[in-house]
Amino acid sequence: MAKGLDVGTMNILSSRQEGSETVFVQQRNSFVEIEYSDMAEQMLSQSEVLHIRKDDKVYVVGDDALNFANIFNKETRRPMQTGILSSEESSAIPMIQLITEQVVGEPAHEGERLFYSSPADPVDVDLSTLYHEKTLESMLGDMGYDPEPINEGMAVIYSELADHDFTGLGISFGAGMTNVCLSYYAVPVMKFSIARGGDWIDEQTATATGTPVDKVTSTKESDFELDFKTDVGGIEGALAIYYENLIDYVIENIRQEVDEGDIEEGLDVPVVVTGGTSSPDGFEELFEDHLNDANLPFSISSVQRATEPMYSVARGALVAARSEEREASREEAEAPASE
Amino acid sequence: MSTYILGDAEAVVCESCGYVGVVADHSGEPREVESWEEALERFNN
Prior knowledge:
The structure holds 2 protein chains of 2 kinds. Chain A is globular. Chain A has helices spanning about 40-45, 65-70, 90-105, 130-140, 150-160, 200-210, 215-220, 235-255, 285-290, 310-339; strands at about 1-5, 10-20, 20-30, 30-35, 50-55, 55-60, 80, 85, 110-120, 145-150, 170-175, 180-185, 185-195, 270-275, 300-305. Chain A has 10 helices and 15 strands. The longest helix of chain A has 27 residues, at about 310-339. By secondary structure, chain A is an alpha/beta fold. By secondary structure, chain B is α+β, with helices and mostly antiparallel strands. Chain B is built from 1 helix and 2 strands, in the order ββα. A two-stranded antiparallel ribbon of chain B has the order 1-2. In chain B, a hairpin with a 2-residue loop joins strand 1 (about 1-5) and strand 2. Chains A and B meet through strand 5, helix 3 and helix 4 of A and strand 1 and strand 2 of B.
């Protein structure tokens, strides 16, 4: 047995194999504090609403946090910001610890292999992801797993580019960050992140339209679609403008970071886009249109969006974990014969 | 120390110093280096 884990700014997802099926468990990585009362505590305890108690405080956690925030006109809080543990949230570590434990469950056996996603250092801000990566490693080890970080962009390659011999450009549009990885036969040639993602779109839209951020997030996640032309005005109009701006910003950073030397001569690169922020209908077409206009120093064979953008990273982490587990078993089986 | 409780699970934090009761391991790990002979053997097999 082995597991995969996508530790995202907006969602935490675990993945495991059961027979021929991959089973995912997902929880929103956010919480909202509600007024404590005996009645509130009793109602929450009797309902399915996931909640955390701390002294005389109650926090609604996960998917229900966004609903409660919208109903009670409060803002959700997050253990993570721009792809890594938030330095502004004092309860970041215990909160992410409890949410992760709920999502990933107990290991099947002590030392079960678990690959968890970790972002690359961003190229557009001075930020190290090391503290985040090591803290998660320690936390997962404390739960009884044998954890191993996997670059988020590389997880996308494992998940989506098996048909291309794990060769191509994987781009994960997350909430806090966008991760990019160029891989050649499963070897990462170049990887970096950009400290902008869906949260940046939500924040800019909220500021531009004077709408609470959580309301913008709910609108974006409900029935928002991207098109080549949209009406200005309203939340949807602003969302479309900032989506286009994020796409251009990511492509410009790819143009700056990838040079001709990184790509084998004559190779047409398949590109796969994924991540929760790439979910709206029309994203793939808009991205391809802007990519074709970008004058990149390499040729692109195709642009495709993952069929299940939310699950790509968790699936890729599981593929890597199972592959390594098989390799370890094989080496163990061969060891006595070679002695 | 503040204790956060979710079902049967607990997590603690000291809000003044940030202690969370999880240990990070800083000891070295042996690194496997593949020799040219091993790499060629792997390639040829």
